[in-house]
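haha ok so turns out i had the wrong file open the whole time. this is the CORRECT one, sorry everyone. sequence first:
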Amino acid sequence: MSDLLTPKTSLGPPPLARSIGHTVFASFLGWTLDAFDFFVVVFVVDRLATSFGVTKADIIWTMTATLAMRPVGALLFGLLADRYGRRVPFMASVIYFSVVELLCGFAPSYRIFLVLRALYGIGMGGEWGVGASLAMEAAPRRWRGVLSGMLQSGYSIGYLLAAVAARLVLPAWGWRAMFWTGAAPGLLAFYVLATVPESEAWRQHRGGDTKDILKIVAANWKGFLYLVLLMTMMMFLSHGTQDLYPDFLKTEHRLSTATVSYLAMLYNVGAVTGAIIFGQLSERFGRRRGMVAAILLSLAVIPFWAFGGTVAVLATGAFVMQVGVQGAWGIIPAHLNEVSHDATRGLLPGLAYQLGILFAAPTNTIEYGMSRHLGYSWAMAAFEITAMLVAILVISLGPERRGRDFLR
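then structure:
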């Protein structure tokens, strides 16, 4: 009784709030550093081609190889996460992709670099699904939308950090140092080990062995195929507007590397802003409505994004484009976890996400090939208009379980 009457002092948030904060921050940081490692290549396409004596198309193909291998990581690490818990597979995926990224900086030839980028894709594919389930299962329901946006904004912040590295690291130490810098995420495993608890939702709904988990996925095959289709369209949306945009600005608009780096920083600020804003709006208006509204915003600025005649117009178009693109993406972690079966939440969101990447992997190659016939501006605009209209249709016809309780 005396304990109830005695005023309590607090030096910080309660233990539960701290553990939620650590969990979401670790997942956010994992995706940030993972994205940094991927986007390093975007800023060194020319230098890699010169160093290895190959064409730019060959270097762009290494990005396709990375994207195509991500489902392997999602399957491997996702199964481990549903069977043995979220923490250890999450740490393992981070350590794995950090080591491979370090090795990329030592690649002596194009062939070895291509193999390493494909192997890197396995780690990148494993990190998102496990990290997203870990974060969304920890997040309070009323904050799930905004925390989903914050988590997914890590992708844009990783892109922004890659742009900063291209401005500071690349001119001073060359392209190999860019990859060596990307090895730092391995230290995140120690933070997770020390501060992040295992998911309570996983403890309550943990499945059986691998066979049992795959049976549940098979029993819900229609919903799974829908999520794969949804993620394929979302990948067309994001990679089609981001991956080749720096090269597009340099090639089509003759902008310097420094100017392109600054523009990339700017439009990734827009991406972070959009992810958080639309993530929060999805709590009020619904996941599907929030995603459709964000995509419509991006659709409206395509003329400025692709055909702008000045740096100011291009910058404005790119900024608003990524507000919409990553605004829609900011809702994805919460949406995918809410519509997934309890016993397969470590596997299903990540596998659907990465299979979407597999089917969308040729995006860069397709856009670059189209540019030879239509011109760079029209190729990117035509590709994205088509992708956005189909994405809106797919999202509108899908399910939604906003605010679902993961502990029941």
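The mean pLDDT is 83.
again sry for the mixup
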